């Protein structure tokens, strides 16, 4: 039963082949048995899950239907869940029980999804390896000595290991797409404003976006359907109708114009990944797509701009964790300053502290123009590059990451080396565009992802291309040994 996709689960439940309660029990037992190897969960919510599963079974018995009714999922541990620990992977929030549900959590619960637990993540979503979590590193089910990617590494490892069919995640600079690539999953970062950020603990508010991680594009369509939509509680949420994402999956790719940026194939790209990307281009050409070389000339400036803007926003967002309003409080403070310093010094790990310092520096009076303002100008140039490219093509295609998943600990002493791995993903966040990563093959037994980018609100098109690709390839069906 653990091999079933969301789409297959929906059919099985509708045909009464099994109940949501049976499925939930099976998956909870599987998590108990296998997750100790992976560390993909921070909290399990067995009681809630069984209660939700029984309620979903009762709703089905009453004639209700729906693709998510009774479907087991998990939430990245930065989505607030009422009465349940929401740690953000940090000691700072180790004992924080959210007083309300995030909009995404509430919407999925209303659709009948069953929450099995909260997944591990890099502390405050800062990282690309899931090694900065206060709850320890997550292991990649494809090779337990390698990282699963981050920051949504727990969601990715759990879905890849077939502990559950799909999970929520968030992407500020690649944290849905990069772990999807590293674990052979399909992951979608929606257009900025498509999915509500209310109750999603902020890292960098102008870049953060929630989205689905699953094994197939078909399942991403189902989960996104439950997550997307306008929310008056999020002032950056966009009031646009949500299309039926499953309805467009089968559109033909005949004549689809795919742009391949020449800057993507630079020296930093592992040539074995380049070859797999060329194979996926050929597969899409066979389906009728037309390939065109394009240019994104400002791409080279994206990493420095992102690593100014994201820490700047983080330094502001994380100021609320001061031991008074939110978060860990130190023992016996001598005075207010001592309370702030020690609470924050004890509560935040080294990567978070590094980013707060970088961000506060970039925003400080003497340096604001030189760093923050300059980075914002680069951000506009990156967006303009995309707008020009989308005049000529419908989709942009390239690798999701320059290298496959690295070994645990390999980049711990060199944060900049890890930042450079985000080269292909962060531009979509800077521009607010939707992006998807899907399985494209293996290098040394480790999965490789191909990334697709589309114009604003064209998530349906990304899912359509990925679904057609998955009907004609079988990379996404491969299962890691031992799971
Ligand atoms: N690796 C990037 C960072 O550390 C992206 C993380 C994310 O998308 N949350 O900022």
Automatic annotation (TrEMBL):
Give the protein's recorded name. Glutamyl-tRNA(Gln) amidotransferase subunit A
Q: Which PANTHER family match?
A: GLUTAMYL-TRNA(GLN) AMIDOTRANSFERASE SUBUNIT A (PTHR11895:SF151), TRANSAMIDASE (PTHR11895)
Ranges for the Amidase domain? 22-463
Q: What is its EC number?
A: 6.3.5.7
Q: So what does this one do?
A: Allows the formation of correctly charged Gln-tRNA(Gln) through the transamidation of misacylated Glu-tRNA(Gln) in organisms which lack glutaminyl-tRNA synthetase. The reaction takes place in the presence of glutamine and ATP through an activated gamma-phospho-Glu-tRNA(Gln).
Keyword hit for Oxidoreductase:
no
Q: Indicate the residues that form the catalytic site.
A: 76, 151, 175
Q: Which organism is it from?
A: Pseudomonas fungipugnans
Catalyzed reactions per annotation: L-glutamyl-tRNA(Gln) + L-glutamine + ATP + H2O = L-glutaminyl-tRNA(Gln) + L-glutamate + ADP + phosphate + H(+)
Q: Which UniProt keywords apply?
A: ATP-binding, Ligase, Nucleotide-binding, Protein biosynthesis
Which top-level group of life is the source organism from? Bacteria
This protein's record includes keyword Ligase:
yes
Recorded family membership: Belongs to the amidase family. GatA subfamily.
Quaternary data: Heterotrimer of A, B and C subunits.
Q: Say which enzyme class the record assigns.
A: ligase
């Amino acid at each position: 039963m653990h091999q079933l996709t969301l789409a297959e689960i929906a059919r099985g439940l509708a045909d009464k082949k099994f109940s949501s309660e049976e499925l939930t029990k099976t998956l909870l037992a599987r998590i108990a048995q296998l997750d100790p190897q992976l560390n993909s969960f921070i909290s399990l919510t067995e009681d809630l899950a069984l209660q939700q599963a029984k309620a979903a079974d009762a709703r089905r018995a009453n004639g209700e239907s729906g693709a998510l009714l009774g479907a087991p999922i998990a939430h990245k541990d930065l989505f607030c869940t009422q009465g349940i620990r929401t740690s953000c992977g940090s000691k700072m929030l180790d004992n924080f029980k959210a007083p309300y549900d995030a909009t995404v959590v509430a919407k999925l619960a209303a659709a009948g999804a069953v929450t099995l637990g909260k997944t591990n993540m890099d502390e405050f979503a800062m990282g690309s390896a899931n090694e900065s979590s206060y709850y320890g590193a997550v292991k990649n089910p494809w090779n337990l000595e390698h990282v699963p990617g981050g920051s949504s590494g727990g969601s990715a490892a759990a879905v890849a290991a077939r502990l559950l069919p799909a999970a929520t995640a968030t992407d500020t600079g690649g944290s849905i797409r990069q772990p999807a690539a590293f674990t052979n999953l399909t992951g979608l970062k929606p257009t900025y404003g498509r999915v509500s950020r209310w109750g999603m603990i902020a890292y960098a508010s102008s870049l953060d976006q929630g989205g689905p991680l699953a094994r197939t594009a078909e399942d991403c369509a189902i989960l996104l359907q439950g997550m997307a939509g306008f929310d008056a509680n999020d002032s950056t949420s966009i009031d646009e109708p949500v299309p039926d994402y499953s309805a467009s999956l089968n559109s033909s790719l005949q004549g689809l114009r795919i742009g391949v940026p020449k800057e993507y194939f630079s020296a930093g790209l592992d040539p074995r990944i380049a070859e797999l990307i060329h194979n996926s281009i050929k597969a899409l050409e066979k389906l009728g797509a037309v390939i065109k070389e394009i240019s994104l000339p400002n791409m080279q400036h994206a990493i420095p701009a992102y690593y100014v803007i994201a820490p700047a926003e983080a330094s502001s967002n994380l100021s609320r964790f001061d031991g008074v309003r939110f978060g860990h409080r130190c023992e016996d403070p001598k005075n207010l300053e001592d309370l702030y310093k020690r609470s924050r010094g004890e509560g935040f790990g080294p990567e978070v502290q590094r980013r707060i310092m970088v961000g506060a520096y970039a925003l400080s009076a003497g340096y604001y123009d030189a760093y923050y303002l300059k980075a914002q100008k680069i951000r506009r140039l990156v967006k303009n590059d995309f707008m020009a490219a989308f005049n000529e093509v419908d989709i942009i295609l390239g690798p999701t990451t320059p290298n496959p998943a690295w070994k645990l600990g390999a980049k711990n002493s060199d944060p900049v080396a890890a930042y450079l791995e985000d080269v292909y993903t962060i531009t979509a966040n800077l521009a607010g565009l939707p992006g998807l990563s899907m399985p494209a093959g293996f290098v040394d037994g480790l999965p490789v992802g191909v990334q697709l980018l589309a114009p604003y609100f064209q998530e349906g098109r990304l899912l359509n291309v990925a679904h057609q690709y998955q009907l004609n390839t079988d990379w996404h069906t491969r299962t890691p040994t031992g799971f």
